[in-house]
Amino acid sequence: MGLLGGGGLYAANELGGDFGGYEAPETQPVVSTRGRLDESDPTERSGSWAFDGADRVVLYVHGLGADAASARDQAYTAGLALDESLGADAPPVIGYSWASDVDWGPAKRTAEANAVPLADWLTAWADADGRPVHLFAHSLGARVTGEALRELDDRGRTDALASASLFGGAVPDESVGRDGRYGPAIGALDAPLYNFHSRNDRVLGWVYRASDRTRAVGHGGLPDAATAPDGYANVDVTDLIADHYSYIEPEEGCMPRAVGRIGLE
């Protein structure tokens, strides 16, 4: 009853799995909106932001159930996976930390409330720094990302990203279609959007479908009946991904395939 009533993806804990157990050092760079959404400047930096020599960065947006420590650890884990694939050429990973450690319904509303802060941060980075940003979004981070893309489109700042990638995206599959909620913004983006999806992802294939009564784009990709917007690509990683948590893990994840598709080599 809790699952169907909106308790949602916390039931995912019953399915097992984690992000590999990697613990980030305090130097891991993070930008956070936790407890700050009502502030005039809702983003706050922590960690080390000395990216000397880097010609691009990755911004990692986590999903549901992450407290501040977990958000930092996940960004660090994504960085380890990039290091494994790219070695010294791997870009630094910045974590985008938002208050997703609440129940499913409130978390979806908080994801939407992060659209403006994330768009603000991306445009400020583009104007002040200028190094290309490749956005990685896991699970409910896809909702944060989709809403931010709509905000960027409204502002005419479709140039703020070098690419966007969804890993196990917990948004409705039709929402990324040309006529869906996020489709027009994806089509307007001056960059590609890649949807890495796996039919082995039981959190999306079972729990998400039961709680939201729809299919997740991170499970089966954009449905055949929908039309893809310009710049959108499904990337099936079912052969690589065994569960909802392993997309960004070193050794077990899909980062080697992802960097090839995104063009990060």
Automatic annotation (TrEMBL):
PANTHER family linked to this entry: TRANSMEMBRANE AND COILED-COIL DOMAIN-CONTAINING PROTEIN 4 (PTHR17920:SF3), TRANSMEMBRANE AND COILED-COIL DOMAIN-CONTAINING PROTEIN 4 TMCO4 (PTHR17920)
GO cellular component, one term: membrane
Pfam families reported in the protein's UniProt record: DUF726
Membrane topology (UniProt): Multi-pass membrane protein
Compartments where located: Membrane
Region of interest (Disordered), residue spans: 20-48
Protein name as annotated: DUF726 domain-containing protein
Native species: Halorubrum tebenquichense DSM 14210
Keyword field contains Mitochondrion: no
Alphabetical list of InterPro entries matching this protein: AB_hydrolase_fold, DUF726
Keywords carried by this UniProt record: Membrane, Transmembrane, Transmembrane helix
Biased composition (Basic and acidic residues): 35-44
Transmembrane segments: none
